[in-house]
Amino acid sequence: MDFFIKYLLSILIFFPVVSIFLLLPVNKKNEGILRNLSTVLSLIEFIFSLYLFVYFKENTYKFQFVEKFNWIPSFGASYFLGIDGVSLFLILLTTLLTFVSLLSSYRYIKEHVKEFVILMLLLETFMIGTFAALDVLLFYLFWEFMLIPMYFIIGMWGTGRRVYSAVKFVLYTLSGSLIMLFGLIYIFIMHYDQTGNFTFNILRLYNTHISDDLQLILFIALFLGFAVKIPLFPFHTWLPDAHTEAPTAGSVILAGVLLKFGVYGFFRFAIPLLPKAAFILAPFIIILGVIGVLYGAFVSVVQKDLKRLVAFSSVSHMGFIILGLFAMSVISINGSVIQLLNHGISTGALFLFVGMLYERMHTRQIKDFGGIAKKAPILTTLFMISVLASVGLPGLNGFIGEFLILIGSFHSYPVLTIIAASGIIFAAVYLLWMFQRVMFQDITNPAAENFEDMNLREIITILPLVILMFLIGFYPMPFLDRIDPTVLHFVSMMNHHKAVYTVIKLKTGLSNA
Amino acid sequence: MDLKILITWLIPLFPLSGWLLWGLLGKYFKGLSGYIASGFVVASFILSVILFFIVAYSHGFTNTLYPWVYAGIFKVGVSAVIDRLSVVMLVMVTGVSALIHVYSIGYMQGDKGFSRYFSFLNLFVFSMIMLVISNNLLLLYVFWEAVGFCSYILIGFWYEKKSASDAGKKAFIVNRVGDFGFAVGIFLLFATTKTLNYEAVFTAIPSIPPYIVTTIALLLFAGAVGKSAQFPLHIWLPDAMEGPTPVSSLIHAATMVTAGVYMIARFHVIFSYSPVASEVVLIIGTFTAFLAAFIALTQFDIKRIIAYSTISQLGYMFMAVGIGSYTAGIFHLISHAVFKGLLFLTAGSVMHGLSGELDLRKMGGLYSKMKTTAVTFIVGGLALSGIPPFSGFFSKDAILADVYNKGFYFAWIIGEITALMTAFYIFRLIFLAFFAESKLDPGKHVHESPKIMTIPMIILASFAVIIGFLGIPPFNESLFYNFLHIDFKNAYDFAPFVNNAPWYLLSFISVLAGLSGIYIAYLLYIKKAVDPERIKSIFKPIYVLSYNKVYIDEIYNFLIVKPLLVFFDFLWKIIDVKVIDGAVNGIASAFAGFSVKARKIQNGMLMSYILTLSIGVAALLFYYFIR
Amino acid sequence: MEALFYIFSFIAIFSALMVITMRNPMTSALYLILCFFAFAGFYVILDMQFLAAMQILVYAGAIMVLIVLVIMLLNISKIKDMKPYLHQKIIGVLISLILFIEIIFYIFHGAQKKPIGIFTHALIKKIGNTQVIGEFLFTEYVLPFEIASILLFVAIIGAYLFAKKKF
Amino acid sequence: MNSYLIVASIIFSIGTLGVIIRKNLIVVFMSLELMFNSANLGFVAVSNHLHLISGDIFVIFVIVVAAAEAAIALGIAITFYREKGTIDIDKANELKN
User: Fold this and answer.
1) Do A425 and B142 touch (CB under 8 A)?
2) Of A267, A450, B43, B185, which one has the fewest beta carbons inside 10 Å?
């Protein structure tokens, strides 16, 4: 057991890969076994990850479950893992959503089942690895590896212009992350120049001294890599395409986990490495985030395709998270982290529902639906809860995150916060309007007459998400308790930089005078 | 745990468990769920009454159930404040809810969404209770939105009807607009005071610059405008009548819509320290009272008439809180809850008897066929018109007297005119529905409602008669004032009394206004001394304006909704697809074009490859020389 | 020695020119063999008799046999040779001239290095050039040597595959 | 040493010229061999001048590579001839598109 806890992160990272070897001998045609086995394996993985939660020590910002081995000593690259309050929940989200999306695709994925489950498990490994890595090189490797399975998932099991979307997705993120790699390596070399040590250890790289101008350039380099992933306005156009064409499981993972990497990257790399640039650029990035909030909401209103609507709503929600992160107050960053989870949970759930509707009606056009509520009360109820969570109805999870973000950001950026807050009105407009047109009113499409309600498997798929919605809504303390110390440390670190920065600015200002 | 704390948390627990029970297991209970749900609310009511007496004979208290959101300095718990204001509200909310639950058993009999109905009704009662007892702004905001959600879901209860689901959505979104202001107010409040706890906020308020207090108060008031359907956000309430009538009665008359008034009374410290904001409250309240009454004059849908009358009466309440007469506002809130709830229930009974008919032009002569309904309706109508000794008289006159005595004459005149119009339109309704000659379909079978519906009506009617007597002796010696004003002791007296007009004089004017309204209605619709059609043609423009609800919906649609939709479409189709994607694809196609050119170099001829290679080598060597 | 060098140079340059100007590939091949012999001569002058032997064996022997074999196999001599385009010729001449000038320029302007190794003529003569090369090949360069053997192996397989009628 | 290098460069240029202007695959290949050889000569000459042995070793490897290359290239030539019926390298445009 000691061993298990000590190397838990490695176990979590490599368990899916190992489980692929369990799946390999299974005959391609035994789709049932493949599906069940992979689902069970991902459930085991999820249960393992719960140990992280249980053994995670509250009230400390220090990294936990740290593992460190030499990897490429001549570069100073190491196999260095560890989690804090932020990555803890992102890993939990990853394992949960992988389980959920595997379970959800029993009906959706009909061909190449074996390849599909293997790619999903592989993707899980890379995602967890990215969240757990504290070594820049390791992080970057996992980060790029992630694209490969995702590319295939969109390209092979997608609908419509799937290859176009997959290529667009890969090109966007790849071009962003190559620029990011340049920035990271530049910092790495600067650190070498200053200390004479090669190291990719992020905690040591934090201490690199970089001049203000250079920080700006490097920050923009890193920013491009992360902003594409989030995606921040105007880098978002890959998202609707990728989401719309991807299979349900792909959309869930894409929205639930992959988008989080951008924010995580800012939190772990861009801001602490280049704090001054972060302070200087924060208002501009927040403006982009707020534009994203409104823009996503506005565009969602007029969407005719269900999935595209949910995809644009993601843009809107991620804008909130960026606002909270760059406002750099303890409250707002807490809110952002909670909102990261919320977005994964509620948008993931929305995609699952869109998938279920699609499986039954073979269409995603809003106008083809209507009156579903009459036929499927369980689906209606759960769908409604998810919609409301996404709208940010108090008592559900979305509210806690949005409210913390807004109330925390208000002090530093009152006008922008107010503008962003108006986004919650439009969230209600587009989501409720969509819900009304899809679920309420009278049945217009004859295909809806034979609409089946959710079966047990689908209920089990959704249930953990719905439970989390209520849990975070009514009792978010187990989450906040673990996030708060990390965020507190982050903000105090930033404030220290900020104080130094203001002193310098004052001095130069005086000398100019 | 202390007994009173236990009671405090048991009150919301009953309806909450009801919601979970019907929500999850509704289909196993079927018909029974109505009775058990009502039982739960009755239990809450009994506990509320007990709590009322505990507080009345000792003093208020606060209690925190569990820490809810702690992030940095942002610390908010799930906590309750139990003082006289909240117990009065509790008793009112649970009492009216209990009666309406019972009534609903009859009204909703046979509906296929029976359990669902009671589930959400219970959820609403839970949210309303929590709204009333919450001890910080965040919790208040949560349940502020939660009641809005219940209202949304219950308005759209018959979701197959497009109009119903449209109305629900409209209610939710319009409320969200108000809530947006409310939320920003909370942000500002937190940014200035660093706390959201009532007690701490109120202590901090006097030391905050007045302009900030005013901003906060106005933003909070925006929430109240949305929730309590005041101009310019009143448009959702008439449409909300698409919901089942008991819902209209409970949510859109008695409880939820009055939350705005309760909120201002609860935050009397903030509002009283900002005379400007209070002035705005008064102006909006007065204007809304007049506007809604004006619209109600010409409507034919009985539920809509009552809905507009609700808006109008809420305007009175805002007048009261706008001049700092918080007890008067709350008193009118309570009495209005009783008589307006009653009016809706009786309207529902009429609908029930006429199988869903709402149009006044197709009614008439119902008095003989449904006596109980008619009598209780008239009681409610008299209370609304402010005829003594019915409750409306005491509560409305308390407000109008205060308005006069505090020197707001213009508001007072408008108030009196509104009172006249109020009496007119409600008796126009009564006369047309119950006394004028019948215009019913001859084949239609009209029947009195079952006992389970009439008994709550009778109970409410009797309360509508007796509850007003809490308001004697008039002014600041009344029972109600003495009980409640202790909670408002921290208010800043920004509008002192300037007159001391005797109550009988003011009451006389009000009663005169009410009676003349009734008399005009009598002349027009019973005696037919003047043909209503003639008046209609004389005042044609005004009539058209009133009949079309002053075109506010159309104006919104034309000025806001349409342009926004066009703009959104533009954003998506032009900005997103053309500009951004176009830029990206443009870069891509530029590369593609370049590579088409570049491909010509690779013509597949080995010769030229070698040639190029040699040129390259030569050039490279050359570079080394010049270096 | 000087005389030998000039003779070999003349033969090498002349035969190289012949290689590229002769119409018939067979003639070119024969001139190429001559050229290789001249190179072998250079190696002898430079005290690398082993390399000279290699040159004769591998180039003049193996590779040229292969080429001649292919020429005969395909019976190319009879195929009418295609005339190069004029502009190609001009460019070719120009480019190779430029290259040549550059190389010459480089040779004369590059820094003339002093001898840095220990393998003087005397030493090599004393040990014997074959032994020197052999020792180096099997100590310091043993890994490239092995790789070269793998390369050859691969080439054999590749040639076999190419020559097969169908892939 | 310079004289050796000059000879080497002359032959190298001739090889280049041959590669560029000739169209017969076999002749092109032979020109390539010429270039190899000139490079070899350079190696040996410089190595001799600097009293080193590595240049000579390198020549051995070059010969090895040349042998391997010859085997492959001639294999290609045969296949090419079989496919096209000619060994004009201007006909070798499979790389196009």
Assistant:
1) no
2) A450
What average pLDDT does chain A have? 85
The confidence score (pLDDT) of residue C85 equals 66
User: Is chain A adjacent to chain C, meaning 3+ CB pairs within 8 angstroms?
Assistant: no
Per-residue confidence at D91, pLDDT binned at 50, 70, 90? low
Structure tokens at D42: 């350079």
pLDDT-above-90 percentage for chain D: 2
Q: Would an 8 Å CB–CB cutoff place C90 in contact with chain D?
A: no
Where would I find the H helices in B58-83? none
Taking residues C59-70, what's their average pLDDT? 82
pLDDT tens across A471-489, in order? 888 888 888 888 888 888 8
In this complex, do B610 and D23 lie within 8 Å of one another by their Cβ atoms? no
Chain C CB contacts of D64 below 8 Å: 148, 151-152
The residue to which tokens 């490239």 are assigned: C144
Per-residue pLDDT reduced to its tens digit, A75-113: 788 888 888 888 889 999 999 999 998 888 888 878 888
Is the pLDDT score of C151 beyond 60? yes
Q: Do B618 and C102 touch (CB under 8 A)?
A: yes
d(CA A291, CA A312): 13
Q: What is the CATH classification number for the domain harbouring D57?
A: 1.10.287.3510
Write out the two tokens for A506.
Answer: 């004052």
Hunting for tokens 């100007």 — which residue is that?
A: C21
Task: Please judge whether D77 and C28 are an interchain contact, meaning their C-beta atoms are less than 8 angstroms apart.
Answer: no
Q: What angle do CA A378, A382, A385 make, to 5 degrees?
A: 145
Closest to A315 in 3D by CA, of A263, A384, A259: A259
Chains contacting D (3 or more CB pairs within 8 Å): B, C
Residue C78, pLDDT > 70, answer: no
Which residues of chain B are at the C interface, by a Cβ-Cβ cutoff of 8 Å? 607, 611, 614-615, 617-618, 621-622, 624-625
- B590 vs B117, B584, B595, B597, C139, CA distance in Å? 61, 10, 9, 11, 55
- Give this prediction's pTM: 0.78
> Are D20 and B610 an interchain contact pair (Cβ–Cβ within 8 Å)?
yes
Over residues D55-89, the pLDDT tens digits come to 888 888 888 888 888 888 888 888 877 777 777 76
In the stretch 16-75 of chain D, residues with CB closer than 8 A to chain C read 16-18, 20-24, 26-27, 29-31, 33-34, 37, 40-41, 44-45, 48-54, 56-57, 59-61, 63-72, 74-75
C100-136: buried (b, 16+ CB within 10 Å) or exposed (e) per residue?
A: bebbbeebeeeeeeeeeeebeeeebeeeebeebbeeb
The number of domains in chain D is 1
Nearest chain A residue to B68 by CA distance is: A475
Question: In this predicted structure, which of A463-472, B563-572, C140-149 has the lowest mean pLDDT?
Answer: B563-572
What Cα–Cα distance (Å) separates residue C57 from each residue in A300, B491, C33, C64? 78, 114, 11, 10
What letter does residue A11 receive in the DSSP assignment?
A: H
Q: Which residues of D touch B611 (CB under 8 A)?
A: 20
Question: B249 and B101 in contact (C-beta within 8 Å)?
Answer: no
Per-residue pLDDT of B219-252, as tens digits, reads 888 888 888 888 888 888 888 888 888 888 888 8
Minimum CA–CA partner of C157 in chain D: D72
Quote the CA–CA distance of C93 and C99 in Å, as a whole number.
10
Q: Report pLDDT digits (tens) over A286-328.
A: 999 998 888 888 888 888 888 888 888 888 888 889 999 888 8
Those of residues 71-90 in C touching chain B at CB distance below 8 A are 88
Tell me what percent of chain B is helix, strand and coil, each rounded to the nearest 5: 80, 5, 20
| Chain B residues touching C106 at Cβ < 8 A | 621, 624-625
- Domain carrying residue D12: 2-96
